[in-house]
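Example 4.3 (complexes with small molecules)
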Amino acid sequence: MHASAEGLAGPPASDEGTIVNVDATRTNRRYLDGDTKACEACGEPVAVDTEHVGAWVRVDDELGNLFYRPVFCDEECWAAWATSSRE
Ligand SMILES: [Zn+2]
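Answer. The structure with zinc ion bound is encoded below.
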């Protein structure tokens, strides 16, 4: 029950949501030691129990706003994702 995107058909592309925040040193104590999530950009596992890059993306749906919280290995992956669909 970690993902805020549950209920969506799938993770949004970067141009389907509004990036409201990015934190290059996010830690999340709700995660256990050794927990990982896949990097949104390259798919590599990201250790979410230590500092990592995490974003908040607001996604509009028919019910209101959902928040999606992708994680990234580093700021390069974040930048690649954030710019991938934006011209
Ligand atoms: Zn990555």
